[in-house]
Amino acid sequence: MSGHAVYSRIVYEIKNRTLKEPFTAADFQNACPGFGRGTYKAFLYKHCVGNVRGDSELFERVSQGNFRLARPFKYSLD
User: Fold this and answer.
1) Of residues 74, 73, 59, the one with CA closest to residue 21
2) Comparing C-alpha atoms, which of 65, 52, 58 is closest to residue 9?
3) Residues 62, 3: Cα–Cα separation, whole Å
4) What is the 3-state secondary structure (H, E, C) of the chain?
5) pLDDT of 51
6) Which residues does the chain have with pLDDT short of 50?
7) pLDDT by residue (tens digit) across 8-30?
8) Is the pTM value of this prediction over 0.85?
9) pLDDT of residue 1
10) Residues 6+ apart with CB under 8 A from 28
């Protein structure tokens, strides 16, 4: 599954209030079942503002282990 599909699903669940911000990796897993275990462990951190690679900054870390979507949404999902 592509990173774009994962991100699109998170945006969808936020918009439909199935996933509430801020959220944890466990919240993400509960609201968006069906992805690989590694996706739940790494995706939020890998795509967080300030990540080591400095690309695809999709999430903001609001506290230890808690995230929210960076605004505006990417990929015309607003």
Assistant:
1) 59
2) 58
3) 21
4) CCHHHHHHHHHHHHHCCCCCCCECHHHHHHHCCCCCHHHHHHHHHHCECCCCCCCCCCEEEEECCEEEECCCCCCCCC
5) 87
6) none
7) 999 999 999 999 999 999 999 99
8) yes
9) 59
10) 10, 19, 40, 43, 44
